[in-house]
Design goal:
2 copies of one chain form a homodimer. By secondary structure, chain A is of the alpha+beta class. Chain A has one domain: Winged helix-like DNA-binding domain superfamily/Winged helix DNA-binding domain (Arc Repressor Mutant, subunit A, Orthogonal Bundle), CATH 1.10.10.10. Chain A has helices at 5-8, 12-22, 27-36, 44-56, 80-104, and strands at residues 25-26, 60-65, 73-78. The two termini of chain A are 30 Å apart. Chain A binds a DNA duplex through residues 5-6, 8-10, 12-13, 26-28, 41-46, 48-53, 67-74.
Chain lengths: 108, 108
DNA sequence: TGCCGGTACTACGTGATACCGAGTACCACT
DNA sequence: AGTGGTACTCGGTATCACGTAGTACCGGCA
């Protein structure tokens, strides 16, 4: 699949929120998860910038824990604001995708 | 619906391509069409920048015609490159939306 | 001991895109 | 003359994903 980066704008952050929401996890694992889900070209640097943004915006709770196989990990979990943001993301996604699909079907 | 601008990145251009592909039309009308389709906050300036970009990238054929109710209109039609780009857009959209929906359904 | 690969995060800069505002201009109606 | 709707252009801004370089911890292998 060729370049999706522009289309991912605004949605990738939501995907990361969803992943964090389903399980407390950390940056490196989130990247691998996204790659496995079909977001093959998403790179670590991208995920880390998103995580730092989430932290800066107060949407996540962060816990640092030693790893055993490398440097310590920063585990992320959603707080109330994060869950709210996630709900908003899905609402926006549903709104947008329904409009686009309607347009695709000959747009009335 | 609150702000969709980030999510529209990469998709709005495809929507404009689809509209042009279904009928030769011009900027002002495209904006109204998008607004009617549910992209309520899309503004004329945005559509015009997309149209200039399409023209610069050689995806459209442009014809200027007098209007009768205002300044002359620039009518846009897809050329072969534009149709190809449109097909690529829909392929990318389908790919992306299927991944996102899978993630939403508990992501396996 | 020294080197490599995998793990894990940070920081800075780039490019693409939608948005915003101001400006220009044509036309009809009052 | 003034207003409102039509129609396009141009310059600047913010945001986001991405690229790259750098730091650092660890195990295994020569």
């Amino acid at each position: 699949m060729d370049d999706l980066t522009e289309m991912l704008k605004g949605t990738l952050e939501g995907c990361v929120l969803e992943i964090i929401g389903s399980e407390e996890t950390y940056g490196y694992a989130i990247t691998r998860r996204l790659n496995g889900l079909g977001f093959a070209d998403v790179i670590e640097g991208t995920v880390y910038t998103i995580l730092l943004r989430l932290e800066r915006n107060g949407l996540v709770q962060v816990t640092k824990r030693p790893s055993g196989v490398g440097p310590p990990r920063k585990f992320y979990a959603l707080n109330d604001a994060g869950r709210e943001e996630l709900a908003k993301f899905w609402a926006k996604w549903q709104y947008l995708s329904s409009r686009i699909d309607r347009l695709k079907e000959g747009g009335r």
